[in-house]
Design goal:
It is built from eleven helices and twelve strands. The protein is an alpha/beta fold and 333 residues long. The strands form two sheets. The protein has an eight-stranded parallel barrel with strand order 1-4-5-8-9-10-11-12, surrounded by nine helices. Strands 6-7 form a two-stranded antiparallel sheet. The chain binds ligand PBG. The site of ligand PBG has 10 residues, from loops.
């Protein structure tokens, strides 16, 4: 049917000049879509490069405030903080994860005192605190225990909420943790603290630089994180995870990693029509940086294209290590 209409229909007419390309443009990337992940470490005036994550450093809380200020100046609305915990504090029960004087709550308090308007997202999972690098507590057979872990995740989430986090972000993939945390928030007067659920978090090979950044101990055993994170082959299962997290009280759902999982993002956004975030993860960012360093892609153009593709697929929110660079580029357009 279509071919009969040529030459009356010529789609290239709407691509002929800039004004019409702009007018028919369906999606745009905006600085208000971005969340910037930052790695933090104990100490004072510390700033350590992360080799596999070019342009990123691990910062102590005093320096974190400078990074946060840059975000605020560029119009970025929120940041996500991830701690590197000294290995001496890792133990069988990940006790440091719910220490009210721990690194994360101290960082949240400092951020909120200085930049009350800047959104702060915290990671709820035990991998930074366990002796084996798993997101939950393992038994002597190396099995990650669901309900024992949930009890600790609740404590961790409460400590973050108490410190003033706007959203806690469970990235652990235990069953039932969203409902458990939502209940605990209701019971403890944190009814306005949000939950961003990593609903569709896959066992991925693209998390490598993140694990360098957090110094995660990697003693993951035979199955790695396969007994709790999603199989990259599955999409129906991601749909189920998202449905459960929404039913349990998640305010925002997330799909992670980003570009290789755009079909999952599109499906979840289309079916649930809930606020949906995409995580452009460390390995994806590192690949682009490495290609750019070799002169194989134009980084600025490729990163803007990447962000736009997330929007087209349905992301309302994009977590990216490129957020500062993208915000700067958007100012120059
Ligand atoms: C830990 C966590 C991970 C990431 C975010 N939270 C690593 C993992 O699951 O092993 C990865 C993020 C990235 O690669 O950018 N719960």
């Amino acid at each position: 049917m279509y071919h009969n209409q040529f030459p009356y229909i010529r789609l290239r007419r709407n691509r002929k000049s800039q004004f019409i390309r702009d007018l028919v443009e369906e999606n745009q990337i905006n600085v208000t879509d971005l969340v910037y992940p930052i790695f933090i470490v104990d100490g004072y005036e510390r700033e350590e490069p992360i080799l596999s994550l070019p342009s990123h450093v691990r910062v102590s809380v005093d320096r974190l405030l400078y990074v946060a200020e840059k975000c605020v100046m560029l119009g970025i609305r929120a940041i996500a903080i991830f701690p590197m915990i000294e290995t001496s504090k890792d133990d069988l029960l990940a006790l440091e994860s719910n220490n009210p004087e721990g690194l994360v709550p101290r960082a949240v308090r400092a951020l909120k005192a200085r930049f009350p308007e800047l959104g702060v997202f915290t990671d709820v999972a035990l991998d930074a605190y366990t002796h084996d690098g798993h997101d939950g507590i393992s038994n002597e057979n190396g099995e990650v225990l669901n309900d024992v872990t949930n009890a600790l995740l609740i404590k961790q989430a409460l400590v973050h909420a108490e410190a003033g986090a706007d959203f806690v972000c469970p990235s652990d993939m235990m069953d039932g943790r969203i409902g458990a945390i939502r209940n605990a928030f209701e019971e403890n007067d944190f009814r306005d603290t949000g939950i961003l659920a990593y609903s569709a978090k896959y066992v991925s090979n693209f998390y490598g630089p993140f694990r360098e950044a957090t110094g995660a101990v990697s003693n993951l055993g035979k199955f790695g994180k396969k007994t709790y994170q999603l199989n990259p082959a599955n999409s129906d299962e991601a749909f189920h995870e998202a449905a459960l997290d929404i039913a349990e009280g998640a305010d925002i759902i997330m799909v992670k990693p980003g570009l290789p999982y755009l079909d999952v993002l599109y499906r979840i956004k289309t079916e649930f029509k809930k606020p949906t975030a995409a995580y452009h993860v460390s390995g994806e960012y590192a690949m682009l940086k490495a290609a750019a360093q070799n002169g194989w892609v134009n980084y600025d153009k490729a990163i803007l294209e990447t962000m736009l593709c997330f929007k087209r697929a349905g992301a309302d929110i994009i977590w990216s290590y490129a957020a500062l660079e993208v915000a700067t580029l958007l100012k120059q357009l």
